[in-house]
Amino acid sequence: MAKMARWMLAVLALCVLGPAASGEAGPAAPRIVAVGDLHGDFAAFLDIVEAAGVADAGGRWTGGKTTFVQLGDVPDRGADSLKIIRFLQKLEKAAPRAGGKTILLVGNHEAMNVTGDLRYVSAGEYAAFADGKSKARRDRLFDRNSASIIASYKEQVPDGSIPAIKRLWEGTYPLGKIEHRLAWAPKGEIGMWVMSHPAVAEIDGTLFVHGGLSVEYSVRPIAEINKQVRAALASDTGEEPSILTDPHGPLWYRGNVSRAGEDETERKDEVEPPSIEDELAQVLAAYGAKRLVVAHTPDLNGIEASNGGRLVRVDTGISSVYGGPRSYLEITGGKALAWRKTAEGKWESMALPSPD
């Protein structure tokens, strides 16, 4: 019942209030290049930005007045997320000098790293932060917390052998993890960098978001959504559901693409919420937009458009951990091209339907 109430409240709000002011609409861009989830694959990322004419291997901006959009999920699974981050930081500084721009969106995996959900952090990602003092830092951490650590391993090491306990604990604290956590913390260097980025952006009538935009959230101006994401990253209030973890929120929502896997138990004897097509129409109308570009939900066949070009999916499983094709979306003059690298190593483009 609660789910249906949210749908109905959002629809009524749209009817009464009309379109939500975007608050963060971007200026006209002569060319847009958008890239989906990277998940720590630096080689794939570099191949894409070079092919798209955005940057060279040295991190120098070559895109001129291009607006480069990366839709989040740089970290986790692959080993080289830190290398990608450092490269993106170079582009952020270099692009404006040439009249270009970078827009880096917050994905659910950025939020997970900032808030301490480390389920998908790879060993290589921790190792990338290790330095000559990492072992000493880890030893100090163990010494300062030895009583609580020993107590927590009591069942696994009944005889209380401190060397045995320390070896087990070190398995959960590889070298570099301490530095990783300090960097990704809300007040850490990378955590603050993530918080400087939006969750939703609009450029020339095209909306960009990592997960998706549900009708519930589309009653909020883009600036308000971004403000709420930043606030939640800085200090989770504990409210449920947090915008960072809400399955209908901008970081996790898959409903613009598919309703598979949704919990249907709450819908018994209730009027069904809008279809994918109807919801997309409502979301676009709410922001006065014509196209929605999402990542998060991979399609290993390549970039796909649906609903007459009004929805574009750019997560193609780029990272080698997925094995999907390297790809990017190019929008020029409102016309969209889906670029894909074939198994033979050739870049090919396909025109996508225009929502005009």
From TrEMBL:
<dbReference type="InterPro" id="IPR006186">
    <property type="entry name" value="Ser/Thr-sp_prot-phosphatase"/>
</dbReference>
<dbReference type="GO" id="GO:0016787">
    <property type="term" value="F:hydrolase activity"/>
</dbReference>
<dbReference type="InterPro" id="IPR029052">
    <property type="entry name" value="Metallo-depent_PP-like"/>
</dbReference>
<keyword id="KW-0732">Signal</keyword>
<feature type="domain" description="Calcineurin-like phosphoesterase">
    <location>
        <begin position="31"/>
        <end position="298"/>
    </location>
</feature>
<dbReference type="InterPro" id="IPR004843">
    <property type="entry name" value="Calcineurin-like_PHP"/>
</dbReference>
<feature type="signal peptide">
    <location>
        <begin position="1"/>
        <end position="25"/>
    </location>
</feature>
<protein>
    <recommendedName>
        <fullName>Calcineurin-like phosphoesterase domain-containing protein</fullName>
    </recommendedName>
</protein>
<dbReference type="Pfam" id="PF00149">
    <property type="entry name" value="Metallophos"/>
</dbReference>
